[in-house]
Design goal:
By secondary structure, this protein is mainly α. The chain contains 14 helices and no strands.
Length: 269
């Protein structure tokens, strides 16, 4: 009993330590500049005007809408492309499929920064700079997503596919009516991962956008820091909280599906 109590005490302390930076960010967003610079932990007066100033200095709401569109499009694109690729590798017998799979997995060792220039030249030739296409399409196919779904699809009995084919069920119909429903948890985990990763992306949107029409929130936060020689950090922290709160809510709401998908991969993979 004592060991169990100690275990929960340690977990509580770790949770407090992990959440402490978020609490301080909320506190800093409500301080005056003088209070923040003097190192106070909590504001003496709540300055909610920092939030209105953050929205006035930079079109954060527009950037948040752009991030929502881009993140949702990348999430759906990854689910479609990765699930189809994993299905083909697992359920369709073709020559060299293992070679194709291992070549695909080997690309996970290549840093994303090493592929930025070729990807940028590609979208530049397609005239996709300052468009949603340029922000989303290069991220549809990821080796991690194919690997994750391939490992899960391998747990589905091949006899099920063979029985469906005998009954006249085509490959695409089997994919829609059997494979996807049986992989709902894993697809949810991949969707959450893709959405949050894209929402926090900074370098690629910075490179592929030159105006505010399709820019995302991470660039908006950086713009707030670069507007003046002396940065108003409470206003910047208010902007950070405006950007952070939707992602935290999304993560909390999807935590159950994310945990279920990862646990399924751990138990079956």
């Amino acid at each position: 009993m004592a060991g169990k109590i100690l275990f929960y005490v340690i977990l509580t302390l770790m949770a407090v330590l992990l959440f402490l930076p978020v609490v301080y960010a909320i506190s800093a967003s409500l301080m005056s500049t003088q209070e923040l610079m003097t190192g106070k932990l909590f504001p003496s007066v709540l300055h909610f005007s920092n939030y209105t100033a953050a929205l006035a200095n930079v079109p954060l709401l527009k950037f948040m809408f752009n991030s929502l569109v881009v993140s949702t499009a990348v999430m759906l694109g990854q689910l479609v492309v990765c699930s189809l690729a994993a299905y083909a590798i697992v359920f369709i017998d073709f020559k060299g499929r293992n070679v194709v799979f291992f070549l695909l997995i080997s690309t996970m060792m290549i840093p994303w920064e090493a592929t930025i220039i070729p990807n940028y030249l590609t979208i530049l030739n397609l005239k996709w700079v300052n468009t949603y296409y340029g922000l989303t399409v290069p991220h549809f196919a990821i080796a991690f997503g194919v690997f994750l779904l391939r490992q899960h699809f391998m747990t589905i009995p091949r006899e099920l596919s063979e029985s469906a084919q005998i009954e006249g069920c085509g490959r695409f119909r089997f994919f829609l009516t059997f494979v996807l429903p049986l992989s709902r948890s894993m697809l949810s985990a991949l969707g959450v991962y893709g959405f949050l990763t894209t929402w926090n992306m900074y370098l690629w949107p910075l490179l592929t956008t030159t105006n505010d029409r399709v820019r995302t929130v991470q660039i908006g936060i950086k713009m707030m820091q670069a507007q003046e020689t002396s940065t108003n950090w409470p206003v910047v922290m208010a902007g950070v909280m405006i950007v952070l709160i939707p992602t935290l809510l999304f993560l909390f709401l999807s935590m159950k599906q994310l945990k279920r998908g990862l646990m399924a991969g751990a138990l079956k993979g």
